[in-house]
């Protein structure tokens, strides 16, 4: 691999469970690899559940059992000329070294590596792993417990780790996820003002709430949304405004 190729390390990270970091890692990685043509790798360091590695096994089995999706997958991989992106399991304390070794030994240049990291600061090696990211994307919801946990930890990353200079972090980006149109708009405004006062970065795009985020494709599906082997259906992306998020995501990472 060329030594001057830029490989970007990205994590969807949060110190609160249930905000969608693993699902978003799979969605964005699949869009980048299958729809936009980047070479992607994923490191699943969310020990012990390793949900992304397990998801890929289910996704592959589901596609093989569904004739419509099997045809789509064959057409996709034939036109792309490349395989599914790898999902490798590691613990947080060794994941950075493993990722660097993978990138340096890969015969094809890797454009971006996504990391699914544990959701607790007490995990051994988690701060070192986060400090090795180039860009961190943190999903937030309009919930007091989520906001308090997220803002405290994001300030720690920005005001302590980044200011010390012993880090690769270039940006930390909060964004609204699972936005319910029925929720109070003033609530989002108040939280957004607080984020600005704390000097933290909030993305303009918001990902709307959808049942698609919480369920995997069914046996008779003709399209997929959350999958590690195919990109999400474009109509579904637009319905939850994931397409707008991807546009802003690409501007931030500047690959």
Automatic annotation (TrEMBL):
Superkingdom, taxonomy of origin: Bacteria
Gene3D superfamilies: P-loop containing nucleotide triphosphate hydrolases (3.40.50.300)
Residue span(s) of domain CobQ/CobB/MinD/ParA nucleotide binding: 10-217
PANTHER family to which the protein is assigned, alphabetical: P-LOOP CONTAINING NUCLEOSIDE TRIPHOSPHATE HYDROLASE (PTHR13696), PARA FAMILY PROTEIN CT_582 (PTHR13696:SF52)
Name of the protein described by the UniProt record: Cellulose biosynthesis protein BcsQ
